[in-house]
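Late entry, written up from scratch paper. The run itself happened at the end of the previous shift, but nothing got recorded in the book at the time, so transcribing now.
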Amino acid sequence: MSETLTPEKKTNGAATDEVKPQIVKVKKIKGNDYDEADYEQMLKLYERTFSVIKENEVVTGKIVSVSGDDVLIDIGSKSDGRVSVNEFSDQSEIVVGNDIEVFLEKIEDKEGQLVLSKKKADSIKMWDRIVDSWKNGSIVKGRCVRRIKGGFVVDLSGLSAFLPGSQIDTKPIRDYDEYIGKVMEFKVIKVNNLNENIIISHKVIIEEGMAGAREELLKTIQKGMTLKATVKAITDFGVFVDLGGLDGLIHITDLSWGRITHPTDVVKLDQEIEVYVLEFDPEKQRVYLGLKQLQAHPWDSVKDKYKIGDKVSGKVVSLTDYGAFIEIEKGIEGLIHISEMSWTQHVTNPTQIVNMGQVVEAQILTIDSENRKLSLGIKQLTPNPWQSLLERFPVGTKHKGKICNITGFGVFVELEEGVDGLVHISDLSWTKKIFDINEHYKVGDEIEVVILGVDVANQRISLGRKQLFENPWETLSDTYKVGTEAEAKIIKAIDKGLIVELPNEVDSFIPASQLAANNIRNFAELFKAGDTLKAKVIDVDKNNKKIVLSVIDYLKDKDQNEIDAYIEKFKIPKKFQAKDIADKTKTYEAEQIDFKIEDIIGEEGQEAAAPVIIDPTAPAVTEVPAEEPKA
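Output as recorded:
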């Protein structure tokens, strides 16, 4: 008769334990003399063949067979589990009889099958490795899977980690796509167990490898040394280079002796170059470098290469209000002043002759090696047309021309293409005192002028407009004798009195003291331009072309009604009597006023002294106002 063993199972939620088999019956087996004590001992030995297994844990199993895409694994349970071949990252592990770790997801699914996962077991083991690596600083390997904002997703044997863009390399990354699919070494710099986030760095490994070289360089680097470097970044203001664990800056001005528009004109990324140490700050560990300092300065050989009078060519590299700089070779520039650009044209801006980037020819005028300056000229390459101007424009001849420019001191008239002359404001009219030339002349007007003088040395032509007419002052002194009474129109009120116009368009002057018996402080507000008044001539000077009038002297012989009418018309603040006028008539003589109309106008900032007419046969050079440009 046989003895029966019945295993029973207990199910407690998700986890199920195999329970020891229980003895149902114990009987003598025919032909055998087993007793109950022997049976108990045998049962204990049998129980040891069962493993206690739990769900959601990593267990060790044995590969028992391979069926198609499935690998059968025995973990000591009542049935074998299946794992897909695709879950094996290393296919060489799939060998019947090999022990392998898997993750027990379920002891029984709906179909009563054991559910195992090789991939999850690998992830759990990898997480433990990542944590250990984070703690001890060991290196892990991973493959860059894809780009995301700010960096890469890296596969660490089934776990996803984040590689920030700033932690890829010590130098800026120019092509991120080249890292896709690349297997690299990393160090774990941050782990979040709660969110299972992993942040890794490849840059840390590079920096650790360079740490020794950096420390050695910091100990030995000195000003004046020559070092090897690799260009790692280029900006608008300069170049950053790697000296071997230490970064340095080459400013754009220290890249070349010549003028450059951008550092890429001289160096390229990843280029290996030699640099010169200009400055080193050990506290901030900053190195300032130079590239041009390893080359001889071009000015050192200028005297051997160039002489005054040589013809050179170069590119326009800079334009200013006063001229153009051209580069005749790297590091050697010369200035072409606007006065050296044309013999005849009135150049006010260099763009009238040259443009940025244009290649021009010029002649060397001066060489200043000490200050490293070259003066160049363009006009010297062509004959000076001013040498023949005296033949074409003799002094005293009349010519027509167009006004090409108007200034505060006169008008420039173009006599022929590239040749213009100045009509000074004092040579526009014999009798009119012009305050604003633009009220009488416009650019483009054609006018007739007289040649007053030609200054070949300074390339100036003096012109006259009033000289087209006879000097009226020969007869005006007879027309307006002292004591002549006349009606005058107010032109302008100035600090010292009124500018008025007499018949025949003769401008005259009434001093402030000759407008009323009492002093008037605000006479400029009372006497408006265009108003008329009567006055008497008290001074005539045909040499200085001036006529002085007095209202007081005019009123001294008039009755009180005319005096009152004058006071009422101009709102004189204080009424005065005939007797007051009698006392005031001597004021002008007592003041001993000695002035010219030009002096008064000049104080208003409207007129400067007229240039002296040049005698073409005289060697002297004429003085011209400082603000007057060359014609």
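The mean pLDDT is 78.
(Scratch paper discarded after transcription.)
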